[in-house]
C-alpha cells in the first residue's frame, strides 16, 4: 500500500472526500456526546510551521490529543530547517521518527518535495497555492447546515488566492458551480481555472457572482506575506465588501463563510459576520478540528 498524501483536494477521490466529510460529522457528534476514541494512541504528528497560525496549530494539536496521539511543534527558528538543511534531508529524517507530518509553508513546491521523500503521509496545512484543510471544514459546514453542495451555486468574492484555488478544486470534486468575483490583476491561477472550466466563471462585479448563490465566501484582501501590498490592495478591492446588501442578491437561505481571521469593515462587514442567521464562520472554524481528525484517520488507514 502506497503512502497517501493530502497536498490538494485532488489527492483524494470524490468518494473518499465524501467519506472524510461524513466521518468528520460523526467525530464531531461523538465529541459532543463525551465519547472518547483513541485510534491515534502511540502515534505522533510532526507539525512544521513556516507561517504563523492560530486555528491550524490548535486544531491539529487538539485533534491529536483527543484521539490519543501526540503532536510536535517544529519551527524553522528552533530547528535545522531554518539553517538551510535541504528539505529532502529533513523529509527523510523526520518521517522516520513520526507517523504523519503537516506543513504550513509558503511555496507549494516545498510540500511536494517533502512528500516525495517522506515515508509517512504529508498534509498541506496551507501553502501559497492551496489550503485544502480549510475546504474540508467549509464543506463539512455546508453539509451540516444545508446538505449536499452538489448542484449548488457558490460565489467567491475577493482575491484569487490559495483559498480561491482550493474552492476551484472543491467545485471539481463536489460538482457545484463556482463564480469568482475578483478585480483585474487578482485572478486565480489560469491553469487551475482551465482544469475546471466547465464549472468556474470569473466576473468583475461581486453582484454578478452572488446573484442566486447558495453559498458566499471571502478572505482577507492581503494575506500573510502581502502586508507591503496592503494599501494597493485596499484600493484594488474597493466595492468587494461582503455585507447584507450584497448577500441580498443571493438565495434567501444562502450561507456566508470566511476562513478567518476577518478584517471587519474591509472584506466583510461586522454586522454580517455576527449575523448567525447567515454567517456560519464559527462552525466553520470549529470544523477544522473534526475535518482534520477524519483526514488523519483516513491517511493512516490507507498508508503503510
What is the overall number of helices? 12
User: What is the percentage of strand-forming residues?
Assistant: 5-15%
| Rg calculated over all Cα atoms | 19 Å
The assembly state of the depicted protein chains is: single chain
The SSE string, one letter per element, is HEHEHEHEHEHEHEHEHHEHH
How confident overall, as mean pLDDT?
A: 95
- Counting DSSP E segments of at least 2 residues, the number of strands comes to 9
Write out the strand line-up for the largest beta sheet, numbering strands in chain order.
7-6-5-8-9
Main location: cytoplasm
Keywords: Cytoplasm, Transferase
GO cellular component, one term: cytoplasm
Binding site for carbamoyl phosphate: 53-56, 80, 104, 131-134, 259-260, 288
